[in-house]
């Protein structure tokens, strides 16, 4: 029984570490893409991406239906 619990714990820890590593790789890839856009003079596209992320996540834009904090009328 103890071996099963230990195996489950190890699987959970390994899963968490893999998820963390994947998130870090995504973040680094996204950052390199942003630097590439700025270095090649495509500042407008980088600004558009940045604004889109801000508008979806930031609570200041919660009147926008695309925002995750949107509190529209319930029908």
Structural commentary:
The protein has 75 residues and is mostly helical. It has two domains: 1-40; 42-75. Helix content is 71%, strand content 0%. It contains two helices and no strands. The chain has helices spanning 2-39, 43-57. The chain is flat, with a radius of gyration of 20 Å. It starts with a helix and ends in an 18-residue tail after the last helix. The mean pLDDT is 88.
Straight-line distance between termini: 51 Å
What is the H-and-E element order?
HH
Structural class: mainly alpha
* Main sheet overview: none
Number of β-strand runs: 0
Q: What count of domains describes the coordinates?
A: 2
How much strand content do the residues show? under 5%
Estimate percent helicity: over 70%
Report the average pLDDT across residues: 88
Uncertain spans: none
Shape annotation? flat
Query: For the CA atoms, what is the radius of gyration?
Result: 20 Å
SS summary, helix count: 2
Quick overview:
By secondary structure, the chain is an all-alpha fold. The protein has helices at 2-39, 43-57.
From the structure above, extract its key features.
75 residues, mainly alpha, 2 domains
How is this fold's topology laid out?
Layout: H1 2-39, H2 43-57
